[in-house]
């Protein structure tokens, strides 16, 4: 038996990096006032079909949807934002805004598996729900930048930002893009021809080489921004500078889902080959309404934990397991005082191990394999010898003295 294609087991160093990413993000988001929410792994299909837009690849190609035994259409969540917005409405929280939400967990998309991309993958993300101010955009980006720094992967990662404008800006820009791409429609890929009819801005994100040549000469949104949209984008950039977050403009960023407006951004790197985006998001001002709630301007981002973990591995940032203390009973009669000692160590927050079998030599070999920092030899009378396995120093200690010495 093997894992299903596009899934994998997380064991050893992989599991430690995965855990470190989640815990670092959770702690950092807490410093910014974000509270963790846990939403279901599956939702009514309408949550994603309505929320993500039917022109997105996620909805049109990648969702794991099925009919359950009750005849309802259910979808394994392909991303976290739509579920968070549904939860905001379902739990009656639209009257207590803004809500600052952190989430972490598995997502599911039927994609072609490759390095750093899986069909079951994991994301961390934050959302500020109910804040229309550009400071909110800058703060969520600053939080993401701090997480990357705390993970030790910020070097070689660049923040690229763009504006998608407000409704009036996008309508004017859409017309300009339709004119540009229609003139060369016969050269567009099949997917881009479909996008030309539904959402021409998505063509800017095409990876097809033929499309990219046409995209290179497409107009940018700047000439079509309303004064209000331009001022919003200027404010976001000003706040990022005040937060000390470096960035560069990329007018081709559009993001892959249909609900974005105003700010769009990606943290990108060249250290992962083709899979260069490690964190991305933007502002979405209509998604909560799609869930049946009131108009709720919001902004957030998501990051793939697999890619962050892979980036940690590339830069050599590999969290190590805690070095245990090996408790070694000297003879069968010494097992009872040894067990009492190991419980006292664990209750004091000290990682401690005791072998289930073997003589002194075998137990010491096991302690060395575990990279134990110390060994506590216990005889049948409960007398304890503490040996520092780095220096080799050994001395007699009481139970309390052993706990005190190892607790530091």
Please explain how this structure is put together.
With 408 residues, the chain is of the alpha+beta class. It has two domains: 13-166 and 226-314, BirA Bifunctional Protein, domain 2; 325-407, 3-Layer(aba) Sandwich (Rossmann fold), CATH 3.40.50.800. Helix content is 38%, strand content 22%. It is built from 14 helices and 16 strands. It has helices spanning 13-31, 45-52, 57-62, 81-90, 134-150, 167-182, 190-198, 209-215, 227-243, 287-290, 305-314, 335-347, 360-369, 399-407; strands spanning 35-36, 42-44, 64-67, 73-76, 99-108, 120-129, 157-163, 248-249, 261-269, 277-284, 298-304, 325-329, 352-354, 374-378, 384-388, 394-397. Helix 1 (13-31) packs antiparallel against helix 5 (134-150), helix 1 (13-31) packs across helix 11 and helix 5 packs parallel to helix 9 (227-243). The chain starts with 12 loop residues before the first helix and ends with a helix.
Key words describing this protein structure:
single chain; 408 residues; alpha+beta; BirA Bifunctional Protein, domain 2; Rossmann fold; eight-stranded mixed sheet; five-stranded mixed sheet; 14 helices
């Amino acid at each position: 038996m093997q894992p299903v294609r596009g899934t994998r087991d997380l064991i050893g160093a992989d599991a430690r990096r995965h855990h470190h990413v989640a815990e670092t993000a959770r702690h950092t988001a807490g410093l910014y006032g974000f509270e963790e929410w846990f939403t279901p792994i599956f939702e009514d299909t309408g949550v994603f079909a309505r929320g993500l837009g039917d022109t997105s690849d996620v909805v049109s190609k990648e969702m794991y949807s099925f009919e359950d035994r009750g005849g309802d259409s259910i979808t394994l969540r392909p991303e976290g934002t739509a579920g968070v917005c549904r939860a905001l409405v379902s739990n009656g929280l639209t009257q207590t805004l803004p809500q600052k939400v952190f989430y972490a967990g598995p997502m599911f998309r039927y994609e072609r598996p490759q390095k750093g991309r899986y069909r079951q993958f994991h994301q961390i993300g934050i959302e500020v729900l109910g804040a229309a101010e550009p400071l909110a955009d800058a703060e969520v980006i600053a939080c993401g930048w701090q997480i990357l720094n705390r993970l030790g992967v910020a070097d070689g990662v660049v923040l690229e930002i763009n504006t998608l404008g407000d409704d009036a800006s996008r309508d004017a820009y859409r017309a300009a893009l339709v004119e540009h791409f229609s003139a060369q429609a016969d050269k567009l890929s099949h997917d881009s021809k479909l996008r030309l009819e539904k959402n021409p801005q998505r063509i800017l994100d095409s990876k097809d080489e033929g499309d990219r040549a046409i995209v290179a000469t497409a107009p940018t949104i700047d000439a079509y921004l309303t004064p209000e949209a331009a001022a919003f984008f200027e404010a976001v950039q000003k706040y990022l500078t005040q937060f000390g977050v470096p960035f560069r403009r990329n007018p081709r960023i559009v993001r892959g889902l249909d609900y974005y407006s105003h700010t769009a951004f990606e943290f990108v790197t060249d250290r992962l080959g083709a899979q260069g985006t490690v964190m991305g998001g933007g502002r979405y001002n209509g998604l909560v309404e799609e869930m049946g709630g009131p108009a709720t301007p919001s902004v957030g981002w998501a990051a793939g934990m697999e890619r962050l973990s892979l980036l940690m591995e590339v830069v050599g940032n590999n969290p190590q397991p805690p070095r245990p203390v090996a408790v070694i009973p000297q003879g069968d009669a010494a097992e009872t005082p040894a067990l009492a000692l190991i419980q006292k160590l664990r209750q004091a927050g000290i990682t401690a191990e005791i072998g289930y079998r073997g003589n002194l030599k075998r137990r010491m070999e096991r302690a060395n394999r575990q990279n134990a920092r110390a060994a506590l030899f216990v005889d049948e009378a409960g007398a304890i010898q503490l040996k520092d396995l780095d220096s080799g120093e050994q001395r007699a200690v009481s139970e309390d003295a052993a706990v005190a010495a190892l607790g530091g």
